[in-house]
Design a protein that fits this description.
By secondary structure, the chain is α+β, with helices and mostly antiparallel strands. The protein has 3 helices and 9 strands; from the N terminus they run H-H-E-E-E-E-E-E-E-E-H-E. The longest helix is centred in the first third of the chain and has 18 residues. The N terminus is likely disordered.
Length: 219
């Protein structure tokens, strides 16, 4: 094909395209020009699989799930920080209260209990009303006034072996008492009637966890 023939062909093709743009109603369609329609820009990002995390999902799970983990706890016949029933004092039956404990730590060999008046100190020593050890952690409760077989009781501040209830001087402000349960990892190598302070010293070396209930009493 020579240059003249090519020129005629291109002109003819142009005429055909213009004719194709004629809609027949006198209107002309604008010929398509790719430059008038640039390709859309698509933003992409590269995700590093090693950086992927389910932290948000895990956080949602953590918020909604109950782990079921409980803390070592002690329950007494009075509310935490409440008034102690006179039944358990020198003004009543003067009997040791019923107690229960839960969520004992793994490895606990025995439970010990102590009742101390923290409002008063005598000769540099706390007034210890009761210390009992050798309690089976699997029993989870102590019946009111009961001393289970194998249990050991200390000589209390008042010179008696066993329990002596709150008995503050008449007219004093309310005394503050702490009833504590100790989870021990070994048996107490003591005897009935050993001094309460000696009991507490040994208990301190064997305790893996403790929990308490406080209360007030006045006369």
């Amino acid at each position: 094909m020579n240059r003249r023939t090519a020129t005629i062909s291109i002109a003819a093709l142009g005429a055909v395209l213009l004719a194709a743009c004629d809609t027949g109603d006198g209107k002309q369609l604008t010929p398509y020009d790719p430059a008038d329609y640039p390709a859309p820009v698509v933003e992409t990002s590269v995700v590093d699989p090693s950086a992927a995390s389910n932290s948000d999902f895990d956080a949602d799970l953590d918020t909604g799930l109950d782990t079921g983990i409980e803390s070592f706890s002690l329950a007494a016949p009075w509310l935490e920080g409440g008034d102690i029933d006179p039944r358990y004092t020198c003004d009543g039956e003067n009997i040791a209260p019923s107690l229960s404990w839960g969520a004992v730590p793994a490895g606990t060999v025995e439970i010990a209990i102590a009742l101390v008046d923290e409002s008063e100190i005598s000769d540099g020593q706390p007034i210890v009303h009761w210390v009992i050890g050798g309690l089976d952690p699997a029993e989870i409760a102590l019946v009111e006034g009961d001393v289970p077989p194998g249990a050991l009781q200390a000589l209390n501040f008042f010179g008696d072996v066993g329990y002596e209830g709150p008995c503050p001087p008449t007219g004093d402000e309310s005394h503050f008492y702490r009833l504590t349960a100790y989870a021990l990892n070994q048996q107490l190598e003591l005897a009935d009637g050993d001094p309460a302070t000696e009991f507490l010293d040994v208990i301190a070396t064997l305790t893996v966890a403790s929990t308490d209930v406080t209360g007030f009493y006045r006369r």
